[in-house]
Amino acid sequence: MTEHRMSSFRVFDAPRELVFKMWTDPEYLAMWWGPKGFTNPVCEIGVQPGGRILIMMTAPDGSVYPMRGVFNEIQEPERIVFTAWPEDGNGNVILEVTHTVTFIAENDKTRQVIESVVRNSTLPPEVYESEMKKGWNSSLEKLEALLQKLVKSS
């Protein structure tokens, strides 16, 4: 089995507990997950080891892109490990990827590190790497905007 590793980080101007909550509360997760313009009318997560993930991302044109997964590890508020199987618009699994998300407190900010291990992709590495980077950047920009709004209102 061929594996491909990728990583990224971002610093949020918000406390670690709040950033962790954005990943583990389905109401908040649905607000920021996915590329800009997409919505998540179904966002069901069982936040515990073995807990299931189902997010139905809906594109502006109405196309639905399900992502199924399972939580492997939860260490509140430090770390989340989950394996995901995103699907194309026809229900075919595109790849299997395990994400390890680490939340590091830095004064009043949070450094979030995402390490991804991709396996069993139907796409060449240069394609899924580019798409994952675009998807994460877009999602994390939405997360950052949501965090700013929540921090200002508190």
What does this structure look like?
By secondary structure, the protein is of the alpha+beta class. The protein is built from three helices and seven strands, in the order βααββββββα. A seven-stranded antiparallel beta sheet has the order 1-7-6-5-4-3-2, covered by helices on one side. A hairpin with a 5-residue loop joins β3 (52-58) and β4 (64-75). The termini are far apart.
Low-confidence stretches: none
Backbone shape: globular
Radius of gyration, taken over Cα atoms and rounded to an integer in Å = 15 Å
The run of helices and strands is: EHHEEEEEEH
The number of E-state strands comes to 7
Distance between the termini: 47 Å
Mean pLDDT: 94
Q: Percent range for helical residues?
A: 25-40%
Strand content: 35-45%
Structural class: alpha+beta
Major sheet description: 7 strands, antiparallel
Q: Strands across the major sheet, in which order?
A: 1-7-6-5-4-3-2
TL;DR of this structure?
With 154 residues, this protein is an alpha+beta fold.
Topology:
Layout: E1 3-12, H1 16-24, H2 26-32, E2 39-45, E3 52-58, E4 64-75, E5 79-86, E6 96-106, E7 109-119, H3 125-153
Antiparallel strand pairs: 1-7, 2-3, 3-4, 4-5, 5-6, 6-7
Task: Name a few traits of the molecule.
single chain; 154 residues; alpha+beta; 7-stranded antiparallel beta sheet; 3 helices; globular
